[in-house]
Amino acid sequence: MYGMYPGVSVRRVQFYVLSMSHKRIYREFVYREAVFRICCEQFDAVTEEIVAQRKILEDYIACDPVFQSSLVPVDIGVDAPLSAVRMAEAAKLVGVGPMAGVAGTMAQLGAEAAVRAGAEEVIVENGGDIYLLTTEKVVIALYAGAAGKGDGLGFSILPANTPLAICSSSGKMGHSMSLGQCDLATVVSKDAALADAAATLAANLVSKDDDIEPTLNRILDIEGIDGVLIVNNGRIGMAGQLPPLVKVR
Hints:
The protein has helices spanning 43-63, 66-69, 82-94, 102-116, 192-205, 212-220, and strands spanning 8-14, 25-31, 34-39, 122-126, 129-133, 138-141, 153-157, 164-169, 184-189, 225-232, 235-240, 245-247. It is of the alpha+beta class. The protein is globular and about 40 Å long.
């Protein structure tokens, strides 16, 4: 069925997840420049929603190109689609452009579609931005790139704490634009658009070690943010209510 969508590919990937009584199956879904890893029995519901929501958002951007190019919050029209509304609201809370929340938004919309289709568990990861609803414990590994500090650690997520968004940004990894040199900025929130936008801001603000503490405080002051973790040049800073850290290797 994926042949009907230009630029789409799907690959089945099998992983053994730590601390689990059963085996989770993840599948990779590539749509245009976005690469998703999805764990859900209602896989088709997730991917169909992602494709549909991307088309709706692209149509909106064609009529309002400033929405895509702006690096600061923007006003949106009353006809704006749900994705744009969520992105714009997050951008205003954080103080960044609305596209800073696009990856997290698409992950959450895809996961919500799975729940509507009857899913009890769904994990959607979109380029480092994760939205999950689980029935058993899951460990989300942290990766700080070549710096290595923080590698070997992960967040242990209990079902009672989901649904939850865990979004990450970096000034040294990935193709997204960043104004800083942060190795890793990870933000936890119930709202994936907000977590994604806040992680973008955190990565923008950190270029040296002295930037870590004021950035932690800045991010934690944003309404709706539960916690934030920053890795920079071998130093780790944490603030707020983060999931427990555990060793993953």
